[in-house]
Amino acid sequence: MTEQYHRWHSPNLNLDLEMLVFGDRGFPVILFPTTKGRYHQNKDFGLIDCVKWFVDEGLVKIYCPDTIDDLSWYNKGIHPADRARNYSWYDKMLVEELAPWAMHETGVNKVAVAGCSFGGYHAANFAFKHPEMVSHLFTMGGAFDIKMFTDGFYNDDIFYNNPVDFLPGSNKPELWQMNIILGTSEHDMCKDYNIRMSNILNEKNMNHWLDIRPFAKHDWPIWKEMFPHYLSTIK
């Protein structure tokens, strides 16, 4: 399995970002880390190894970028407005830098996005905000309501980065063309977030699969079962 390391200066964030890329061809998949995880986390915890076959067969090319959790939602040392503004710049980086990069390299005009736990938030927020750029959304143990990080403060930056708030009123036609899988499990602490998101999608008649696995907890073993299954749905 080929692996490449990239470091670049993001003009949208005005800081350096790092990323690992696995594979040399195939459908582009942007895979986000969990809470405060770095670009190498999904490799370190075995999530990349569990989909090695898809990479080796040239079916997918997986992009594992850094996030800015410490500069945005998890930074209690700055005002919630600053947390939200920083995250809006991160979203702009995805739109203007990373997603076009992945599409250009693979020759595909959309990306798949995925993530476990808080990585599921990153994936869902990007997919639902920019469905014109996303064909597949795979979340595993995701949570989708960012208001728990805003100390009661609320503004437009929070609204437009909170899927449970902006999605009900969005009518972008590409939303109904997306392949959406919400993966959770019986003992997942984020199960209720997934049920709530599924209800929102049902109210909008958006086709999706709410995959609730029995017995499992909010942890890597069940996510490593889910991820190859979900990648197999990419056509």
TrEMBL record:
InterPro entries, sorted:
AB_hydrolase_1, AB_hydrolase_fold, Mycobacterial_A85_antigen
Q: Say which domain of life the source belongs to.
A: Bacteria
Question: Molecular function (GO) terms listed?
Answer: hydrolase activity
| Record carries keyword Chloroplast | no
Query: Which ranges carry the AB hydrolase-1 domain?
Result: 82-163
Could you tell me the keywords of this UniProt record?
A: Hydrolase
Keyword match Ribosomal protein: no
> How is this protein named in the record?
Alpha/beta fold hydrolase
List the source organism: Mucilaginibacter lutimaris
Cite the source lineage: Bacteria, Pseudomonadati, Bacteroidota, Sphingobacteriia, Sphingobacteriales
